[in-house]
Write a structure and sequence with these properties.
heterodimer; A: about 325 residues; alpha+beta; Elongation Factor Tu (Ef-tu), domain 3; 2 domains; eight-stranded mixed β-sheet; 8 helices; globular; B: about 350 residues; Aminopeptidase; 17 strands; about 25% strand
């Protein structure tokens, strides 16, 4: 499965190489044209079978949230800072992969036995956490890492439950998997696919990708938070697993173009594809940067619901991913 | 044993699952290794694994040594199935709930179910909630099933273990993973047994993988009573150095096992261990233990009419997390020191232990 393969690769913002290469490997032999740009975006053109009078772009970001080494202690422990938005409470007692050689590391914590009762009531702060690669001292650590080395989560993508997947970086390898599936299938309308970089640090890749491709219509294919879990009222869940792709009307970065918003609903209803609305307006997406590209682009967002995003272990439902492919395909056919 | 074999051994034991009270599958893994080197292996009524090796004792009245390491590990237990299918749970043994959000787990239901510990989404937390540590009651296990599906697979009381396969670190010679507390000690038993396979020793030796240590030193209580050893050494873990921690709370990784001194430990055993470490050039550290009931040695010492006890502890970073880390060198030295200790024993030494 494409998502499983893509999810397991490291691709923290600014270091998307492994993901880009894996996607290019998939593109080979399918009569597709592609190019990369100076930021590392991968831009792919599918000529398609239809007449296709409009230039449509689908965007999914290759990068994921992760960590970066900021200093090396005498003891060989690594200090780090997050790249992208990470709640530091999810970092404790987790495995990571450090650098391009992906050497194993762990983020430990002070043992419970050594904590005072009042310490146990507070979350661990970032300053209390270190990456341990097993090095005995700074010299040994420096053989493997330097300041600026990227660190990614280390959670193997695993199927579980009723058609669910557990893994890291579904935000937004899920979107990458959707784009790839549409690129690789025979026929279908013409479109441009932008596999973008640096979304998690400010929608930076999409901005230049959109400038280059000059689309008239664009859709960001994302993974978005699902809080359909205990202790959260249903109306605050944003999206629900198993209810199909989530269509956004607005987020922090964009008010979705109404033509696209309606087009997605019509496409879903006509093809009887389950979908839901994203009942939350926080968070930014590549669509926000795309919409403001050049003299403006009509842009929208559709997303795969995903629990525990931006953590080492997120959860999605495979049927939602498949329905996202169907909905984007139906929208493309009506739009391109 | 060679370093590579020790690495495989400790990783296999770390991977095995044996939450306090349900240790059988971890015990079976330990048994497979120990039985190669001993005369007889059995379980007692609580489930302690006992591997017995007879000593060579020409013309002497026999005496026995027990080497004890606990096989159980901390975990969790299902307490409720929620409306949406998520599972509520409580800890078995001392777990810090703050290590749990985002942790992959396995639920031992009718079948083995993969899951992940979830918490309320960060964007929905109030400022006050963000400043508070996770508590068990705020967390849940997501097994990707609806309530109806979950009820067919899971019952209240089903156990939950961490899905955290061990890691061999690239830098250094360390291993990281779950339940190295105290599978490291059990691995040291196997290393010791292997060292003694072709060696002469007068003591009858019981290698004991004890159960239910994490919930109150329970297995060692009945094992010591049942076996009536003349002396015993518990092998456990102690806190390894890490940022933010300083001696005397922590011990150097790679600095060798810590030999505990204090009221819980017979001074002659401590002295013998230190002497042997010096003679054999094993690095050791010394741990002052003022009498905190932390290890199996605590209950062994006061079993029946009293059993002289000692404690060797392997330094372990991040104890009771899923990324506990030890040094292979420390582990190997612990096993070898135990073997040297076993070989050094004779009847006069043992008889002298009651003479103060």
């Amino acid at each position: 499965m494409l998502l499983e393969k893509l999810s397991n690769l490291p691709g923290v913002s600014g270091n998307e190489k492994a993901v880009r290469e894996a996607i290019i490997e998939q593109l080979q032999g399918h009569a597709l044209e592609w190019q990369t740009d100076t930021l590392g975006n991968l831009l792919v053109r599918k000529k398609g079978s239809g007449s296709g009078s409009r230039r449509v772009m689908l965007a999914a970001h290759m990068d994921e949230v992760g960590l970066m080494v900021t200093s090396i202690e005498k003891s060989g422990h690594l200090k780090f800072r997050p790249v992208g938005g990470i709640d530091s409470r999810v970092l404790v007692s987790k495995r990571v992969r450090v650098g391009d050689d992906r050497i194993p590391g762990v983020i430990g914590s002070k043992a419970i036995h050594l904590q005072k009762p009042e310490e146990r009531l507070k979350p661990f702060e970032l300053d209390q956490l270190y990456i341990d690669i097993g090095a005995r001292n700074k010299d040994e650590a420096e053989k493997h890492v330097q300041i600026g080395t990227y660190v990614s989560f280390d959670t193997a993508c695993t199927p579980f439950g009723d058609g669910c997947l557990r893994g890291k970086a579904f935000d937004d390898r899920a979107g990458c998997a959707v784009l790839l599936e549409l690129l690789l299938e025979k026929g279908g309308p013409a479109f441009d696919a932008a596999f973008t970089v640096q979304e998690e640090v400010g929608l930076r890749g999409a901005r230049v990708a959109s400038y280059t491709l000059q689309p008239q219509y664009a859709l960001a294919v994302e993974a978005t938070a699902a809080a359909d879990t205990p202790d959260t009222e249903k109306e605050r869940s944003a999206t629900m697993l198993g209810s199909g792709p989530a269509i956004s009307f607005m987020d922090r970065s964009i008010i979705v173009n109404r033509e696209i918003f309606k087009g997605l609903i019509e496409a879903g209803e006509k093809a009887k594809i389950p979908f839901q609305f994203r009942r939350f307006t926080g968070g930014g997406t590549d669509a926000g940067a795309i919409a403001l590209s050049r003299e403006g682009v009509k842009a929208g967002v559709v997303a795969v619901p995903c629990r525990y995003i931006h953590s080492p272990c997120s959860v999605l439902k495979k049927s939602d991913l498949q329905h996202t492919v169907s909905l984007v395909r139906a929208w493309l056919e009506a739009t391109a | 044993m060679k370093e590579e074999e020790v690495k495989e051994l400790v990783m296999e034991l770390s991977f095995a699952v044996g939450i306090s009270g349900s240790e059988e599958s971890a015990t079976a893994a330990a048994s497979r290794h120990l039985e190669r080197y001993v005369t007889r292996v059995w379980r007692d009524r609580l489930g302690n694994l006992i591997a017995f090796k007879e000593g060579d004792k020409p013309g002497e009245e026999p005496f026995s040594l027990a080497l004890v390491a606990h096989i159980d590990e901390i975990g969790a237990m299902v307490t409720k199935i929620e409306e949406g299918g998520a599972l509520r749970f409580t800890g078995v043994g001392g777990i810090d709930p703050r290590i749990l959000p985002g942790q992959p787990v396995e639920v031992h239901g009718r079948t083995l179910l993969k899951g992940v510990v979830g918490a309320k989404a960060p964007h929905l937390l109030s400022e006050k909630e963000r400043r508070e540590a996770s508590k068990f009651e705020d967390l849940f296990i997501d097994i990707g099933l609806t309530k109806e599906q979950a009820e067919k697979q899971v019952r209240i009381g089903d156990l939950v273990s961490f899905d955290a396969p061990p890691l061999a670190m690239t830098a250094g010679k360390n291993i990281a993973g779950k339940s190295l507390d105290d599978r490291a000690g059990v691995a040291a038993l196997v290393i010791c047994a292997a060292e003694l396979a072709a060696a002469r020793h007068r003591a009858n030796i019981y290698f004991v993988a004890s159960v239910q240590e994490e919930v109150g030193l329970r297995g060692a209580t009945t094992a010591a009573y049942g076996l009536v050893p003349d002396l015993a050494v518990a092998i456990d873990v102690t806190h390894g150095e890490a940022p933010g921690l300083t001696p005397p709370d922590v011990f150097e990784l790679g600095g060798g096992p810590a030999i505990a001194v204090g009221p819980n430990f017979h001074p002659a055993l401590t002295a013998r261990l230190e002497e042997l470490a010096r003679d054999n050039r094993f690095s050791i550290q010394r741990e002052a233990d003022t009498g905190v009931p932390g290890t199996d040695a605590w209950v062994i010492q006061v079993s029946r009419e009293g059993i002289p006890a000692a404690l060797l502890s392997i330094p372990l970073r991040y104890m009771h997390t899923t990324v506990e880390m030890l040094s292979l060198d420390d582990l190997i030295n612990t096993g070898r020191l135990l073997a040297a200790f076993a070989r050094s024993l004779d009847r006069p030494f043992v008889e002298g232990l009651a003479c103060f």
